[in-house]
Specification:
Blueprint (H helix, E strand, L loop, with lengths): L10 H9 L2 E10 L4 E4 L5 E8 L2 E5 L6 E3 L4 E4 L5 E4 L7 E2 H6 L7 E4 L5 E9 L5 H7 L3 E4 L5 H16 L6 H18 L7 H7 L1 H12 L7 H7 L4 H12 L3 H19 L4 H7 L5 H12 L3 H6 L6
Parallel strand pairs: 1-9, 2-8
Antiparallel strand pairs: 1-10, 2-7, 3-6, 3-10, 4-5, 4-7, 6-11
Helix pairs in contact: 4-5, 6-7, 8-9, 11-12
């Protein structure tokens, strides 16, 4: 862990490491004729890459559907039920039952004959205990249009991801996991500039610099005045701008980030709690344990014991 400010820190890479974005499943679907399928709520990152034809995706609660033309991609993390169709006016049937009844060969399914649409659809998994962090970084739904500079690369990555997911080759899990993370970065980069949220804060010259400093030295005992001096802002201006873009004060953000690092370390490393407390900038194990209990509702040792077998 870094122990001094790092102006070149990469907060987005840090966030992806904590989220543990990894491979899930992927299918190529070819469908002819008119149809509408309703899918239930989900707990992962879902993606759709449109290869041919036009697909409508209407998410519950939205006024209008997304229209996906060839080359478009849609990233979904809201978890809300949705209807995928060739025509939003069609009545929808159960999508899970429909897909489950179809034969699947090499990660591909088809129905309705030729001449319809083709998509690659699938999901990425992530650390469920970091869902609130995912919600800060990834919008509920993100449409990446074919005209975006990110779309061609994203289509290529998702096609490789689908092929590799069904290859059963050595190193498959390492490769699909890397492709999932790269595809997510490409999708997020398509928001240039991001309209709001954490990515907009990261793109802001002053607040982005503050975030890089906090991520570069999370163990440092930062004060708002110290951070403001580093990014050439007044203390009050930094506090106001940070809250406007990030949604919290700088020191509250730092506290949350330390706890995310703590949860990751407790699940993935065998460090003594006292050593972890020192690494994260706490004066004592008891101070760290108290902060951790306030954040998670349990002691560090209890949290570590929740680690799945074999992880």
């Amino acid at each position: 862990m870094r122990d001094r400010p790092d102006h070149d820190a990469d907060p987005l890479s840090d966030v992806l490491a904590v989220l543990r974005v990894r491979s899930g499943a992927s299918l190529r679907m070819a469908a002819g004729g008119p149809w509408a399928l309703r899918f239930p709520a989900y707990s992962y990152l879902k993606f759709i890459a449109q290869r041919s034809g036009v697909l409508y995706v209407h998410v519950d609660g939205d006024a209008a559907p997304y229209r996906l033309a060839p080359g478009d991609c849609l990233l979904m993390r809201s978890g809300r039920p949705y209807v995928a169709s060739t025509d939003p006016a069609l009545p929808a049937t159960d999508g899970i039952a429909h897909v489950a009844a179809l034969p699947c060969s090499g990660g591909a399914i088809s129905w309705g004959g030729p001449g319809g649409l083709e998509i690659i659809a699938g999901r990425f998994e992530f650390d469920a205990c970091q869902r609130d962090l995912l919600e800060q970084v990834v919008p509920p739904e993100l449409l990446v249009p074919a005209a975006s500079r990110a779309a061609p690369a994203l289509h290529t990555l998702l096609a490789l991801y689908r092929d590799e997911a069904h290859a059963c080759a050595p190193g498959q899990h390492a490769l699909t996991g890397a492709l999932a993370r790269i595809a997510l970065v490409q999708a997020l980069r398509s928001q240039d500039p991001a309209p709001q949220g954490w990515l907009a804060a990261l793109a802001d010259p002053k607040i982005g610099a503050a975030l890089r400093l906090l991520h570069g030295a999370p163990a440092r005992r930062w004060t708002v005045a110290d951070l403001a001096g580093q990014v050439a802002m007044s203390r009050s201006a930094l506090a106001l701008r940070f809250r406007q873009l990030v949604g919290s004060t700088p020191l509250h953000y730092l506290q949350q980030w330390r706890m995310r690092l703590a949860r990751q370390a407790l699940l993935e490393e065998g460090l003594p709690v006292a050593t972890l407390a020192y690494r994260l900038g706490y004066a004592s194990e008891s101070a760290f344990s108290a902060a951790f209990r306030r954040s998670t509702g349990c002691a560090p040792g209890q949290f570590r014991s929740m680690r799945p077998e074999g992880r």
